[in-house]
Write a structure and sequence with these properties.
Elements (H helix, E strand, L loop, with lengths): L5 E2 L10 E5 L5 H14 L26 E6 L2 E9 L14 H17 L13 E9 L7 H10 L7 E2 L1
Parallel strand pairs: 5-6
Antiparallel strand pairs: 1-6, 2-3, 3-4, 4-5
Length: 164
Amino acid sequence: LNTWIVPRRKQLTLPANVSVREIRREDLPALMIFLEKMSREREWLPKYRATDFDFPSNTFLGMNLGDLLGVWENEELLGTLGVWDQRFMKQIVVEKYAWWLRWMRPVYNAAAGLVGRVRFPKPGECLPLVTAVLPLASDRGSKYFGHLVDDVCRRLPASADAIM
């Protein structure tokens, strides 16, 4: 199992007919069509229902509708990615560091803050990461997925350094 950690990044420019925006209630029919198409192309993608996105939701506990973004080309949904801050129910907590990292952590954290990297938390604190949800793109949407990632990273909660 590999986990990619993507720090905050600067926004890239999109073509005029492409936009990244929050998925709204009126977009739910387009979202369901997109997810149905993706489920035929992707193994292991769960079968979602529209009620799963009627936030607050038991499926995505703690997530709000505005936390899910889509990349649209001429009003067609081509990709999705959301931020799901699960730290209220699931954390990765640091117990302790090796002696050399314990001494280097403040120096690293100062540099990480300047260059936009993930900080090492104090022992007993959780990693400052949130979870990516529904990282999906159609074949046409894959060329815009980096824009979607950039926009999601720009919207991270202030307490999060990156999305994983």
